[in-house]
Specification:
Layout lengths: L2 H42 L14 E6 L5 E6 L3 E6 L2 H13 L4 E6 L5 H12 L3 E7 L10 H5 L4 E6 L8 E5 L2 H17 L1 H7 L13 E5 L5 H6 L2 E6 L2 H14 L12
């Protein structure tokens, strides 16, 4: 082989090597770009977060606006706050939060007219979630209020605010620690009155239950179709212990206890 042919062969080999490296790097680049896009889609899709609210810290903002953006922003202490801005998705998200109640649901709402939310509250009660609702007395039975429908179910407790001050709160507490303690006290009291239940309880090994993470939802939003479809509204969702405790204290100040005396100490 003469020198000229050798140079051509070497050049061709070098070109093939360089081309293969370029192709390899391009494949690697597009593969990583695809993975990053998929990861960003999952992390930025705030609506998927609500499907896993059990036992995790919640810091969320739901905005009812005309935008259709979804994003996650950072706040101090490396806490992610999810913002999901689409009316249809936010209605779905709000209801998913309500449906996530496992033990108790305490609602303090100026107005409830949404039939979808009322149906979800009824379903929770049927699943033995302890439901308490405080509403403003002037708006409680004014059509299209759903309060009359909710009072037809004995497992849903409704009280109207009797004070002269307007009850304009718009918050709900899901699985609050004090409410769960109250439910346990009621259950213990019922079992104490039921001799058969006491006998059975001694022969049943108590099952281990996972701890429940309570949270509160509060903002400008009434539980009404008008508010969710037509208004600019906002709801903050948080499991912060200090905030949760303050809302539980406020709810208890409005709720008139009707249960046995033993609950006075919880």
């Amino acid at each position: 082989m003469d020198w000229k042919n050798a140079r051509v062969l070497l050049a061709s080999t070098a070109a093939v090597v360089v081309a293969s490296q370029v192709v390899r790097q391009l494949c690697k680049y597009f593969y990583n770009l695809r993975r990053k896009t998929e990861t960003d889609t999952v992390s930025d899709d705030a609506c998927s977060d609500v499907l896993c609210t059990k036992n995790k810290e919640i810091n969320d903002v739901i905005l009812f606006s005309d935008d259709s953006l979804r994003r996650t922003i950072k706040v101090p202490a490396n806490k992610d706050v999810s913002i999901c801005e689409s009316r249809e998705i936010n209605c779905f998200k709000l209801i998913k939060y309500i449906k996530s109640a496992r033990e108790t649901l305490d609602v303090c709402m100026y107005l409830i007219t949404s039939t979808e939310i009322a149906e979800q509250i009824i379903r929770l009660g049927q699943k033995h979630v302890l439901v308490r609702i405080v509403v403003d007395s002037d708006m409680a039975f004014t059509p299209p209020s759903q309060i009359k429908k909710l009072t037809e179910y004995s497992f849903i407790k409704v009280q109207t605010n009797k004070k002269t001050i307007l009850m304009h709160h718009k918050f709900c507490i899901i699985d609050g620690p004090k409410a769960i303690k109250r439910k346990s006290a009621l259950k213990a009291y019922a079992e104490k009155l039921n001799v058969h239940a006491q006998f059975v309880k001694n022969h049943i090994k108590p099952s281990k239950t996972k701890p429940i993470k309570g949270f509160v939802m509060s903002g400008s939003l009434n539980w009404s179709t008008q508010a969710m479809v037509s208004n600019y509204e906002s709801v903050i969702v948080t499991s912060n212990t200090n905030i949760l405790n303050k809302f539980e204290k406020e709810f208890e100040s409005l709720w008139i206890e009707e249960e046995p005396v033993l609950l006075a100490n919880i």
